[in-house]
Design a protein that fits this description.
With about 700 residues, the protein is α+β, with helices and mostly antiparallel strands. The protein has two domains: about 230 residues, Glycoside hydrolase, family 65, N-terminal domain (Beta-galactosidase, Chain A, domain 5), CATH 2.70.98.40; about 450 residues, Glycosyltransferase. The chain has 14 helices and 35 strands.
Length: about 700
């Protein structure tokens, strides 16, 4: 057997200052060029455990070495940046590291202690780490004789905020002090972190951040060391997932089964991730909303929160209600042109358009999500309480768009985006349903306004050409259409539910909807793993571009539902298979986006280094795909539900249970012939056409 290189003792490493060439190997990540903001550190090869507001970003071997973004975070502060295990003077050899639940990962390593030249390891080391910062280190002996093992864990932290770590501005590691059965670190601003150990270490060396044990393992026995990190924020901000069964009540369990054996894991992982991303409103703890994603956007992102709860409506109208209540409290209340708008940050829109306003997107989504939640069975009291906020959103829309029927982006540029017009059209149609359901005036006026918008869009946003034409991505100042095609065009295929469980009419007529379906199903947009955010033939296409070529999971799922509702099942089926195959390649945890490279026979989807994973919208897409396969269209106020499954059954026979329609359990089965059968439903619920 070839000799192995000697392993360098951990203590030798932690006592030496880090000397690196500029920009390479820097503990805080690559240094930005002068005048350029720091790139976010890549996280596509890390294991991320989440139970917001807690998070652990772990390298593949589970050893925190104090470099990069890795560490244990609570409410945005890094409590632990270094946690390195050494047994008998050397690091264990990793054999497996994996995520076992949204908030927990396990790492299995081995140690060879015998000096007789036998290559077999005789100690197995299992490290279980969770998002809250608890680590259980279990050593199991397979040796034929008792072993005396010196165990050391080197700990350290900078107590830096996540934003500073991301930007490469983390501070030097703090000095530790011995504290009871562990170590403590403090900052001048009053922050602190404490690591406690059970059993207590035999020795603690504060200058090096070392805890030491002398363990005796008899043949076949195990010993466990538990480390727990806490801070001033731990008791103040407890994760929702650890507060009894609150998260389970907001998002109950659902099951998927069928010919495709990947479905149970896909749905189970997605729902677990969505629960792990739920956050309480600090000012109103009873109201919960989904954070956008880990590690970069753990806080509120209004538009993405609404899209996530919209896709989760088949499981929970309660989560939609708490999210809508939280956003209603943020509406601008000063009379003026912004009255009723929900604030939100700007978002990069790619190389051809200025940044878009996510607050505008959230304001338009609010009445649509409320209307659909009502169709799924939101209790009347919750629905009625939220209607005034939806009215304020519509009032803002009227002021922003006027009677012309087209909604410009805020700012001097005055760009008219096609997907913004789709959101406005949906808000008007479904907002009219909200007004009509509560006996408020204006419903018919909004339907007429939507008709004007539809006519203007057909006239001003369609570009005719020899291939059948395409929708413009936007109209620029002066009226010039921007001829770009990307996945955002999927929003033109409306899937909003109106009376009788029917989908609302989209912005395009039948012929142009058919042409858009052909474009979405063509090789320029369909990568085989999902829709590209910008087609391959468009100027500026970049398969890794956030909005210029990467596959965005949310827009692909929107396209699936829209294509299926419009009867274009072939194109919808291709996208379903692409997303499910991609999910398997990502361990059933879909990121918010990944590279839009073309699929090959032996290829796998390529990660995007800066993508959030998990992400709330991507997690909710799994449920959205399944309900689109079954074509579930509820109308709870009319005690009716319609089914229109995708008859070409891209995943074979499928059974979905644990859903809720009209507040009661609902289960449906789709056969291999594409026939849908209701297996469980609320009493008195009628099957519509």
């Amino acid at each position: 057997m070839a000799p192995t290189a000697p392993r360098r003792p951990l203590s030798a490493r932690i006592r030496q200052p880090v000397r690196t060439a500029p920009g390479r190997g820097d503990p805080a990540g690559p240094r930005p060029l002068p005048g350029r903001p720091a790139d976010p550190p890549p996280v596509h090869r890390t294991i991320i455990c989440v139970s917001l507001p807690c998070m652990a970003i772990l390298p593949e071997d589970g050893q925190l070495d104090g470099h990069g973004i890795a560490g244990v975070y609570h409410s945005g502060r890094r409590l632990l940046s270094r946690s390195q295990l050494r047994i008998s003077g050397c690091e264990p050899t990793l054999v497996q590291g994996r995520l076992v639940s949204p908030d927990r990962a396990t790492f299995v390593a081995v140690v060879r202690t015998s000096a007789d030249g036998v290559p077999d390891p005789d100690v197995c080391v299992e490290r279980v780490r969770d998002a809250l910062g608890t680590e259980r280190i279990t050593l199991r002996s397979f040796a034929a004789r008792p072993l005396k093992l010196p165990v050391e864990v080197a700990l350290g932290t900078d107590l830096a905020e996540l934003g500073a770590v991301t930007a490469g501005r983390s501070r030097p590691e703090l000095s530790a002090s011995v504290h009871e059965s562990g170590l403590r670190w403090s900052t001048d601003d009053g922050g602190h972190a404490v690591v406690t150990a059970d059993p207590s270490p035999h020795d603690a060396l504060a200058s090096a951040g070392l805890l030491r044990w002398e363990l005796v393992l008899r043949p076949g026995t195990t010993q466990t060391i538990e480390l727990r990190v806490t801070s001033d924020r731990t008791e103040r901000d407890r994760p929702l997932s650890r507060a009894g069964r609150a998260a389970d009540r907001l998002l109950p369990e659902a099951q998927a089964a069928g010919d495709d054996r990947r479905l149970p894991a896909l749905l189970g992982t997605a729902l677990g991730d969505l629960r792990a991303l739920l956050i309480r409103d600090p000012a109103h703890p009873a109201d919960v909303f989904p954070g956008a994603g880990a590690p970069w956007r753990c806080g509120s992102a209004p538009a993405e929160a609404l899209w996530a709860v919209r896709m989760a409506l088949p499981l929970s109208t309660r989560l939609a209600a708490t999210t809508l209540r939280m956003l209603a409290r943020t509406q601008l209340s000063v009379q003026g042109p912004d009255f009723g708008r929900i604030p939100g940050p700007l978002r990069d829109a790619g190389p051809h358009l200025p940044p878009s306003c996510t607050g505008m997107e959230a304001t338009l989504a609010f009445p649509a999500v409320l209307a659909e939640a009502w169709r799924w069975g939101m209790p009347e009291q919750e629905f009625t309480e939220l209607v005034p906020a939806a009215e304020r959103c519509l009032q803002w829309l009227r002021q922003a768009a006027g009677d012309e029927g087209l909604l410009p982006e805020p700012g001097a540029a005055g760009v008219l985006r096609s997907d913004t017009q789709a959101h406005a059209h949906r808000a008007a149609i479904l907002g009219a349903d909200v007004l009509e359901a509560t006996g408020r005036p204006g419903a018919e006026d909004w339907r007429q306004w939507a008709g004007v918008l539809r006519d203007r869009f057909q006239e001003d946003f369609w570009i005719d050409d020899r291939t059948g034409g395409r929708p413009a991505a936007a109209r620029l100042p002066g009226g010039r259409p921007l001829s770009l095609l990307g996945s955002s065009a999927a929003h033109l295929l409306d899937t909003g539910l109106v009376g009788g469980g029917r989908p609302a009419a989209g912005l395009l007529n039948k012929e142009r909807t058919e042409q858009l379906a052909r474009l979405l199903g063509g090789p320029a947009l369909d990568s085989g793993w999902g829709l590209r955010s910008l087609g391959t033939g468009e100027p500026g296409h970049n398969p890794f571009g956030h909005r210029s070529g990467a596959v965005r999971v949310h827009e692909t799922a929107v396209a699936v539902a829209g294509l299926a509702a419009a009867g274009h099942e072939k194109e919808a089926s291709s996208l379903v298979r692409g997303l499910v195959d991609a999910s398997e390649a990502f361990g059933n945890r879909l990121p918010e986006m990944y590279a839009g490279r073309q699929r090959t026979a032996d290829g796998v989807p390529v990660p995007h280094p800066a993508a959030c994973r998990p992400a709330a919208v991507a997690a909710a897409c799994a449920l959205h795909l399944l309900t689109a396969l079954a074509g579930i269209r509820p109308d709870a106020p009319a005690r009716m539900v319609a089914l229109r499954p995708i008859r070409c059954v891209p995943l074979g026979a499928v059974q979905i249970s644990g859903l809720r329609v009209a507040g009661e359990p609902f289960a449906v089965r789709i056969s291999r012939r594409g026939l849908a059968m209701v297996e469980q439903a609320a009493e008195g619920l009628q099957l519509g056409v």
